[in-house]
Amino acid sequence: HRHLRPPPGPQAARLDLRPMTVTGPVTQPDPTTHDLETRADIHDLVVAFYREIVFDDLLEPVFGEVAEVDWALHIPKLIDYWCRVLLGQPGYAGAILNAHRHVHDIEPFRVEHFDRWYALWIDAIDQRWAGPTADLAKTHAAHIAAVLARKLLDLDWQPPAPPRTVGTPPPPTL
Known about the structure:
Blueprint: H1 39-53, H2 60-66, H3 71-87, H4 96-106, H5 111-128, H6 132-153
């Protein structure tokens, strides 16, 4: 029995920690959604995403048992990282490959780790945001996963095909 830890800090007591569903019918974004525009939006995205990680049977052991992530330190770094990437804000100085190589050396990553991480990230975005910056967040996450898979696994990782909405015809075959 693993001990699941919610993200730290005063916000942890107020978070809805129920897991979100990633499988099943695809829902269209709520028309009231907006793009990722502010540091507060990035904060909410990162917290929502990692809240799902701590309840995920595949990824939680990687973060909790192998990497032994200290959420109080990790979440602010990730917010800084995504604010730099998406909003051009200064503040993040880190080496993504080295940090992940350290974890990979302890217990090797597998393709399904990348697939699940990416699916949860896409779902976290699609729950509340839509627009060019939200699309950039998805594209950049795919790039991160592809680079890490290539460098750590010597593998050409591609994002899994998104599930189709019921009633949508399959893509044409060439």
